[in-house]
Structure formats: C-alpha cells, structure tokens
Amino acid sequence: MPLVRVDALEGRSKEQIKKLLDAIHRAIVSAFKVPIRDRYQIYQEHPANQMIVEDTGLGIQRTNDVLVVTVQSRPRTVEQKQTFYRILCSELKACCNIESSDIIVSLLINADVDWSFGYGRAQFFTGEL
Where do the H-state alpha helices sit in the chain? Predict the structure, then answer.
C-alpha cells in the first residue's frame, strides 16, 4: 500500500517498464515514507486509439511517453502529495527520460478499513499493520 496503477501507450520494452516502475516506487517510498517492500503496482498498456490524454486547457504538449499514474492510498498531507509529484517527475526524467509534461497523477484516498492484504482481514484497521 499504496496501490499504484500506471496506464501507458503500448510500445515499451520489459526493461523500460521495470525502470519506470522502480522510479515510481522510489518516489512513493521517499514522499510517503512507506517500507521498501510495501510495493503494489499494476502496469497496463493501451493502443494509441484507446487512450486519449489531453491537457485540460493548460496548453501542455503530450508525447507517446505519456503516463497516467493513479495512486490509491491512506490519507496523505498536502506536503506529502506535492513532494510525491515533484520526486516522481524527477525520478522519471532521470532514469526514463520522461518529461514532466507527460506525467499525469491522480491520488485516490481511502481509510484504513478499506484495505485487506489477505486472510479476509483489514490489517491496518485491526492493528496487524
């Protein structure tokens, strides 16, 4: 936890995908201070005609490197969220050469009782975590 879903246009190699997911995880660990093995990521590629990502009128130019990163998480502070956005863009630029204009992030916040990591129990809520 957090649960990260990455939607991208098809065409990246296995090595590129691994680098990308590793970069996102480093940003999560750094900004949200989660344990290193607290890693839940889903990567999904889409044909170009099945993913439309415009700019909400901001004049942002997108390329075929565009990513939509959706993060489901327990509550985070405004500072943690802004730190995550900044570190994420820095990590993805440094190791994957993805421009910040191609990175869209949505954070979905939920409560401790909304998470079960197995065995039919809500481990954050029960105190197991």
Answer: 14-32, 78-96, 123-126
Bridge-based pairing of strands 67-73 and 3-9 is antiparallel
How do residues 67-118 score in pLDDT, each as one tens digit?
999 999 999 999 999 999 999 999 999 999 999 999 999 999 998 899 898 9
Q: What is the mean pLDDT of residues 58-73?
A: 96
Residues sharing a CB contact under 8 Å with residue 70, sequence separation 6 or more, in sequence order: 4, 5, 6, 7, 105, 106, 108
Task: Give this prediction's pTM.
Answer: 0.92
Find where tokens 């075929």 sit: 64
* Residue 66 pLDDT > 90: yes
Residue from 2, 35, 47, 75 carrying the catalytic annotation: 2
The crossing angle, in degrees rounded to 10, of helices 14-32 and 78-96 is 150
Say whether 47 is catalytic: no
Map out the domains of the chain with their CATH numbers: 3-126 (3.30.429.10)
Whole-angstrom distance, CA of residue 46 vs CA of residue 111: 30
Q: What are phi and psi of 35, to 5 degrees?
A: -60, 150
